[in-house]
Amino acid sequence: MVALQVFTFAAVLEVLLVARGALSSYLPDIIRKMSLSSIIILIFAVNYTTWLIYRLMIYPVFVDPLRSFPGPSSVNGLKLLWFRLTTTVIPAERYVTIAKRFSNDSVIALRGLGKTQLLLTKPDSIAEVLTDHPYDFIKPPVVRKFLGLILGENGQFFAEGERHKFIRKNTRPAFSSRALQDLYPMMWTKALTLTRLLRDEVQQQSTAADSMGTVDICPWATRASLDVIGIAGLGREFNMLKNSDDKLFKAYEYISEPSLEKIVYAFLCSSFSYQMVQRLPFWSLNVTFRENIESIRRIAEDLVREKREAIVGKGDDNFDILSLLIRSDNFSDSELVDQLLTYLVAGHETTSLAFTWACYLLATHPNWQTALREEVRQALSSHLNSSSSVSIQHKDLGSILESLPILHGVVEEALRLYPAAPILLRVAAVDTHLCSRPIPKGTWILIPPWLINRSPEFWGADASDFRPDRWISPGGKRPISNAGTAAGNSGSLTFLRGPRGCIGQNFSRAELRCLIAAMVGQFEWTLAMPEDRVVPSGAVTIKPANGLYVQLKSIGPE
């Protein structure tokens, strides 16, 4: 953008000189006869046209330090920008098309009016950024300023270097295998609460002749996941499944609900700055967005204060994430609020979205839905009724759910096909190299889980197909990891990898097992809307743009 500033400064200087008559003798008669306002318009038009020619024709060929990287022309970059600003379809879909054109390259340069960005499409380039030099590539500061309002600017998600290592060390006990096994009964209870409330919803809509009704899965998934992270994250019962008017739920629902206006808003805030966009007049979204952000932060501040008082005054011995951080005595209240925001958002968003998309996939693949139902009801038939007096010891519940091969395959395929964040951004914090080519400090890097997770190179010709059997042993007896991928662990990027990989990925998988198993064990469902209306959309994460309406049919015990 430096060149744009130079051309703008030149235009302003020329206008001042013309206004003072300093250039009158150098201007042709046709221009001298024009009004001052017309001359000003002409000056800016000429300068910006010159800048456009420079950006699209001269800079990419002769000046750009990244000109050695292959990629589409600057004109195609403009098409991509237009695509992002005029449609709710996720940009990752366009990146798939670009990657096919440059299928032999690990790094593809995306050129446009702004800085050239580098799209990573192969395991070697991705490993350099995520595994080999993870702290040389940080989250863009302008993105951090914007998303930090939602995720906590000083939370684990945005922490870098030693600070990130320190936070991860302090939170690791909450995500240990033992801690996870202890959480299974709570997750299962919440899953059964969800199915009981859905059954009530169905009964209100159904006649005596059937037990069918239509529901939108999206808000139910969000409420269930927030209830789980409320207990696991701060030892607090939100009861959002039973209270859809909760202020925290309403605020998150508003912020995450996809719309073209919000996508444009997020693009502007991430490209320029949130503070600059907030100064734009007559945009009501500025007010409502700010109010919801402030509401979430106030609630988080109250939760931190209450938890600290409980630990100090009442000897609260819970082992939720917030309790661990407070007992470490290494975080101020402001830092704890940021950590809490990180876990509230990241802790519920990935799971709620994956559960939503799993319901969609099972609705459109009834054969797998039937097979999964048979597996779940055979293994957990006595535990699917929330009023059952049968108790499941934590060691049994976790091991039962984790041993079910079809359930495992459905969970992994939903996470693979619909990663919560289809595109992740990094920026080079130092002058460095990528695939043996120099890249300057400040270079933006695009890491596309959506592209990698659906790549035929890694997953075969049916990469975009829903195939839970990818994750099941040939005999169909046990779950396996990364089966059928040509790239092993490089085949899926849903949770990233390396030191910055998602610390809560196994937590998310455990919650998904509970939600999906409880759902499929008690309902049959089909789509209650045209399939072409189920469109992945969103500025940061992806959810169905028009909701996910399914027709549920309650099924009784075997």
Automatic annotation (TrEMBL):
InterPro entries, per the entry: Cyt_P450 (IPR001128), Cyt_P450_E_grp-I (IPR002401), Cyt_P450_sf (IPR036396), Cytochrome_P450_monoxygenase (IPR050121)
Keyword list, A-Z: Heme, Iron, Membrane, Metal-binding, Transmembrane, Transmembrane helix
Binding residues annotated for heme, in chain numbering: 502
Membrane-spanning segments: 6-27, 39-62
Cofactor(s) of this protein: heme
A GO MF label: heme binding
Family the UniProt entry places it in: Belongs to the cytochrome P450 family.
Stated name of the protein: Cytochrome P450
